[in-house]
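2.7 Reproducibility. Because tokenized structures are sensitive to small changes in the input, we list the exact sequence used for Nucleotide-binding domain-containing protein, including any N-terminal residues retained from the expression construct. No trimming or masking was applied before prediction.
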Amino acid sequence: MVLPQSEKSAYDVVVLGAGVLGLATADALSATGLRVAILARDLPEDVDSAAFASPWAGANWSSFGANEKERKRDTHTFEVFGRLAKTHPEIVTRRQFKYIWNKDKGYSSPWYKDVVFNFRRLERSEVPGPYSEGVSFESYTLNPHRYNALLASRLRERGVPIVRKRVSSLDEAFAHFGPVDLVVNATGLGAKSLLGVEDPAVFPDRGQTALVRAPNVDICFGVRDADMPAGKAVYIIPRPGSGGCVIVGGTNIKGEYSTLPNRDTAEQVLKAAFEICPELANGGKSWKDIDVVSHNVGLRPAREGGLRLEIEERTLGTDVLTPEGGKSKARRVAVLHCYGIGPAGYQANLGIAEEAKEIALRHLSTQRSRL
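Resulting structure tokens (single pass, no recycling of outputs):
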């Protein structure tokens, strides 16, 4: 069914979700001149919400792209971060990284060694803590709150509405702003239960961190040891524009939904971080001297098989479980799924948004050519 022009929406695309992927994709689409609207349960300013992962990220650019497509996305994001670091250093900052280990699992010669700056092997005297080897390079760390606020500000300046609404079904997004033909599904972990998607491959990757005040720590550290226990991670990420705060972590626990910090984990995180960077204690003698601002938990929206980025054509009005089911004539629409990136959201977001934009433009062009 093709709707008459008088019944069409004022928008070309509705983006469902306002996490980092939803915002970045909406930004890329609206920059082309498309009329875009965003519908989301959680908004960019909800920096204390435990219901979505974007506020709780580290965040930095440290790629673990496993194939050419993932590496292309990450490289594009890295290049844009470089430009952003020059204009907004309070959001993105270039700094030194040190990755260390006893048993190398490939980080001595990663694929991105020619993408980052000044990649080199560390001398033994430069390797902190109980580790024996490592590398140094320069990359970027982000302030996720400021980054998402920048994207949201840019969108609102273009007239893109960002509306708070909880939807129970994918079909609802096609009708909220009037009938649209394309919805971007950037619901993250919500894709597991959202009616019309219900993706069983989606799962939470629980990360617990601490935000600490350590203005003298300017290096980003990461332990990349092949013998690291499953579910454990050790990293230190200075956060730009935060008054000298640093994120220390952490965990990667598959399938765990709890958003409350665990006391034992909090202690382990601080101890492991102090072991490789005593400067976190601001002159103190132990991990107990670290000035903790907050303990945090975020549920990274991961997916078996990785990111889902594809167009799915569907027919509205046929699912009796949805609010629109059976109430209107069936019509053909499309959804661009864009979710399941897990812990790589920030390092890949701009590359994913660029790819999503191209998919959307091809689809819309094809649809218009049929009219």
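The first helix runs from residue 20 to 30.
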